[in-house]
Design goal:
This protein is mainly α and 49 residues long. It is built from one helix and no strands. The protein has one domain. The longest helix has 16 residues.
Amino acid sequence: MPSRYNTDQLTEAQFEPGSRGRVLKNFPGIRSKRLMDEMEATKLAEATD
């Protein structure tokens, strides 16, 4: 019986292939945690300026 709390099918609960479960699925297809951290920091700085 499936659980109503199972979110595995949602995009928000999926990881990028090849990221070893460290990077959530994303539009640009970034697989590297380091690159994702850099991108997030850059976008945060742009948004807060």
